[in-house]
Write a structure and sequence with these properties.
Layout: H1 4-15, H2 19-26, E1 27-35, E2 41-42, H3 44-56, E3 60-72, E4 75-85, E5 91-103, E6 106-113
Parallel strand pairs: 1-6
Antiparallel strand pairs: 1-2, 3-4, 4-5, 5-6
Helix pairs in contact: 1-2, 2-3
Length: about 120
């Protein structure tokens, strides 16, 4: 179960848009991430590379944790609001829930729940 200090540190990194650093610091080597019902991406190195590619395609990003955070043992739910600007100048607002399973002070599994229509892709 993550400590309150660990959760605060994780959220602070994400809110500073240091997403890659958050993955490097807080995810176990075999961690997985899953977008809705798509197949999960597995392995911290894979997650880091995927995040780098996603961020490289953006021209601006603001990440906000919408509190409260829900913690039940090793499971954590965080509501995020991401506001970013695409290279074509369009703005996107993504409201998502991240459902995480922690192993001690690190994330082992994470699944994101959001409406894909928010991305303008249906």
């Amino acid at each position: 179960m993550p400590s309150a200090q660990t959760l605060d540190a994780f959220i602070a990194l994400v809110e500073r848009n240091e997403h890659v650093q958050a993955i490097e610091r807080f995810y176990v080597p075999g961690a997985s991430m899953q977008e809705n019902d798509k197949p999960p991406r597995v392995g911290r190195d894979t997650l880091v590379e995927s995040e780098r590619k996603a961020l490289a395609g953006m021209h601006g990003l603001r990440s906000t944790c919408i509190r409260p955070i829900f913690v039940s043992g090793d499971h954590v739910v965080i509501r995020w609001l991401f506001e970013f600007r695409r290279p074509d100048g369009t703005a996107v607002r993504l409201d998502e829930l991240a459902y995480q399973r922690w192993e001690g002070e690190n994330i082992a599994q994470e699944k994101f729940f959001y409406d894909p229509a928010q991305m303008g892709t249906g």
